[in-house]
Protein 1
Amino acid sequence: MKNSIANVQKRRSDILSIIQEKEEASVELLCQLCDVSPSTIRRDLDAMYQMGVLTRTHGGAKLHDQSLSVSEPQELVKLRHALAKAASLYVKSGDILSFNSSQTALYVLNYLFDMNLIIVTNNVEAIRLHHDTTSTLIMTGGEIRLPKEAMVGDIAINSITNITSTISILGCNGIDPIHGVTTENISEAKVNSFFFENTVGKRIVVADYRKIGARAPFKSVSCSMVDILITDIFAPANIVAQLRKQGIDVIQIDPNL
């Protein structure tokens, strides 16, 4: 079935790989290489354009000139919500859920209802976000790092070490097979590491295609600490393959489906 979700995801990943290699590709060429109709390719290109991955050209597409910057906020929010929704499926009723200052991780709360959870986070925004009244929200405390409003420092770390989570979800600035999960702030990196170290269940990383293969200055955890990576179909296929070889269950979602 050419229109199954798996086939659509693979085809769009192939389209991105072709355009990355050639810098620009016509609808005609993509039809030949992907063995589908022009209307199918145009739908794919439109969807990928909406995500800010590609720029449409007359008769084809090319790489987005600012594909590594947050230049499409509306589409980025849509993508983050799609990743968060996928991550929420791993949370079970009665879990002790921990997550860091990541916006994507925060959005997971939008999809958790009537589950009697204990939620532990250093993300100040969690206080403002509506969450299920059957669940308990525990803030780690600590020094608040602005403008991101992340709680860090010894107080935050001490709180985390006194709570054993059954599932933990981290966002990041980068993840690659060699350097692991990395972030731009050393204080947040320390907090992130303690979240995973004090989890006895699934350790999940949520990261969109821009973060896959990227490296930030400070390491949070090694790849060996990651059970599941939830990303999108635009993540570089070679990096995804390497991460899977390290034992990570990589889930790729299409936010347009």
Protein 2
Amino acid sequence: IGAALVEEFPAFKLARVALSVDNGRLAQIFARDTGGRDVALLTDVTATMIHEAVMTSAVLWSEKLRLRRKPVNELWIAAERKQARSLQKLIGLFNENAAARFRLFEIVNDSEEPRLKELKTIGRRSMWREKPNKLSLPSGVEPSETAARILALAPKNTDIIFSKQGETIRFLGLPFARVRTVASDERAWFGVDRDRRPLNESTFPTLIELVAELDTYRNAVSANKRHEFYRASPEAWLESILRANITRLDANLILSPLYNQFRTSSDKIDLLAIRRDGRLVIIELKTSPDRETVYQAADYWRKIELQRRRGELARIRAFGDMEILDKPALVYAVAPALSFHPDFGLFARSLRKDLEVWRFELHENWRAAIKVLQRRSVTENS
């Protein structure tokens, strides 16, 4: 990549190439032009990192470079096509000052040696020209006979997720049973993680024992807080509490009954809600410090905002008869007070003003009761 840099910009000569001390997958390259001006380039040499992680590393390194005795005020980022296109969309959500600190290049491998092609920052108008994904909803939202029978074992602590693949039953957010209906034939499995077995009349007593074990260990006053059932999927646990009653977070919120259709991936917990005045609210949940939280929420905001602007959310009646306000969605980042990453504010302030991020700090014992200790806006100039 260093060779591609000087090939694309002959006025520069390589000064130093090294792997990041903090992350060995990132190469840090310095080049200097004939006038003595230094530039720095960051690239993921494995091309495997999520783009939000690359961006957080770039922002933090840029902060350090600007504090040098001879400051480097412009950081270049080189990435493979998919990663580069995702970074381009993310930088398009930055405010003007933050975006100006970066130049983005796609690594093109159409010849023997890779070359760099610069990607321009996506403008405000261009961003909303993208075609939104069509939201496909499950055919029915009534539990099957088998699912209803499982839910009845612990009605206060279980819920159900509907998808094209069928029904997933969870105990305080932890999946423990799945039901698939094929040609009116219901088939079910139960177990946690990979320990699964078919559910039938002969194995139903074993399922009852599993639910009893979940009830013993997966609760706020667990008999053993080191037990895998207590420690597993904490963010899904927090989600299940809020899904049951979102007003515990904010009395002004109504959760979309179709919220699970708006998940961006299986490993990130996002909820979509609406305030009583019609303003959309994206809720990003974390239970441990995560550096990528802000930029993951920003990516999700862009997707939801595109669907809002194109009328997709209104078309599927995401909130029933409620009218969605013609204003950008808000982002609520929700986590226990000590579980926000130290650089959360730095990343949030890099975003544009219409992407408004709020920080909701919860009491550490959120499993027992949801208590909001503090809420405040962390957007630019706030």
